[in-house]
From TrEMBL:
Active site residues according to the UniProt entry: H108
Residues given in the record as (6R)-10-formyltetrahydrofolate binding sites: R64, M89, K90, I91, L92, N106
UniProt gene name: purN_2
Residues that coordinate or bind N(1)-(5-phospho-beta-D-ribosyl)glycinamide: G11, T12, N13
Phylogenetic lineage: Bacteria, Bacillati, Actinomycetota, Actinomycetes, Kitasatosporales
Name this polypeptide is given: Phosphoribosylglycinamide formyltransferase
EC assignment: 2.1.2.2
Origin species: Kitasatospora cystarginea
Role: Catalyzes the transfer of a formyl group from 10-formyltetrahydrofolate to 5-phospho-ribosyl-glycinamide (GAR), producing 5-phospho-ribosyl-N-formylglycinamide (FGAR) and tetrahydrofolate.
UniProt cross-references to SUPFAM superfamilies, sorted A to Z: Formyltransferase
Keyword set includes Calcium: no
Coiled coil segments of this chain: none
Keywords: Purine biosynthesis, Transferase
Catalyzed reactions: N(1)-(5-phospho-beta-D-ribosyl)glycinamide + (6R)-10-formyltetrahydrofolate = N(2)-formyl-N(1)-(5-phospho-beta-D-ribosyl)glycinamide + (6S)-5,6,7,8-tetrahydrofolate + H(+)
Domain Formyl transferase N-terminal: residue ranges: 2-184
Keyword Metal-binding: no
Length: 205
C-alpha cells in the first residue's frame, strides 16, 4: 500500500513508520511526506530517508479553501491508498475529506472522545485524570471525532503535574508510535470496513 504521511512537528511517529516500512513484510511504503510548515524535524526525517516531501502553508493561500484544495492536489499527486496524519496540526477541509474519505488515519494523544483538540495531553492533566493515553482513528468532518480503530492507556504519575505534561506526552508518544505502526500495517495489508462507527480489520488468515 502507498502511504502519504502529514506532519507538523518533530515527526517521531513518522520516523516509526519509516523504520517499520523498511521491512517489506510491513506491506506499505511511504511515497511522500507533507507538512503545513517548513523547517520542522519531520521534513528532515523524510529527506534523510529519501522520501519526497511537500509543504502547503495556509498563509500562502488567499482563502483556507484554496489551501485545502492545494493540499488535496499535492496528496492526490502521489496516489496514496492511505493518508496518515501523524501530528499534523491542521483541520482537513471538506475537499480533502471527500478525496480521501475513509482512508485518512489520525493519531491523537488522549483517549477520545475525551480531550479532543490541540491540547489533549494538558487538558487531561488539568482535569486530573489518573489514566490517559492515545487514540488511532479514522478522520471524519469533526475534530478528532472519527471512528476509533485502537487505543493505548498511559498511567498519569504525580510528577506529571509539575512539568506541564512534557514527560507524560513523551510516555504517550512511546505507546502511540507502537499503536500507529501496528494499525497502519494492518490497514495496509488487510484493508478495513466501517459499520456504524465500528472499524473492522479482518484478522489475518
Ligand atoms: C503526537 O503525540 C500527536 O498525537 C500529536 O502531536 C504529537 C506529534 O509528535 N498531535 P511527532 O511529531 O510525531 O513527534
Amino acid at each position: 500500500a502507498r502511504l502519504v504521511v502529514l506532519v507538523s512537528g518533530s515527526g517521531t511517529n513518522l520516523q516509526a513508520l519509516i523504520d517499520a516500512a523498511d521491512d517489506p513484510a510491513f506491506g506499505a511504503e511511504i511515497v511522500a511526506v507533507g507538512a503545513d510548515r517548513t523547517g520542522i524535524a519531520g521534513l528532515g526525517r523524510a529527506e534523510q530517508a529519501g522520501i519526497p516531501t511537500f509543504v502547503q502553508r495556509v498563509q500562502d493561500h488567499a482563502e483556507r479553501a484554496d489551501w485545502d484544495r492545494a493540499l488535496t492536489a499535492s496528496v492526490l499527486g502521489y496516489q496514496p491508498d492511505l493518508v496518515v496524519s501523524a501530528g499534523f496540526m491542521k483541520i482537513l477541509g471538506a475537499e480533502f475529506l471527500t478525496a480521501f474519505s475513509g482512508r485518512i488515519v489520525n493519531t491523537h494523544p488522549a483517549l477520545l472522545p475525551s480531550f479532543p483538540g490541540a491540547h489533549g495531553v494538558t487538558d487531561a492533566l488539568a482535569y486530573g485524570v489518573k489514566v490517559t493515553g492515545c487514540t488511532v482513528h479514522l478522520v471524519d468532518a469533526g475534530v478528532d471525532t472519527g471512528p476509533i480503530i485502537a487505543q493505548g492507556v498511559v498511567q498519569v504519575e504525580d510528577a506529571d503535574y509539575a512539568d506541564g505534561g512534557e514527560a507524560l506526552h513523551e510516555r504517550i508518544k512511546t505507546v502511540e508510535r507502537t499503536l500507529l505502526v501496528d494499525v497502519v500495517g494492518r490497514l495496509a495489508r488487510e484493508g478495513h470496513r466501517i459499520e456504524d462507527r465500528k472499524v473492522w480489520i479482518p484478522a489475518h488468515e
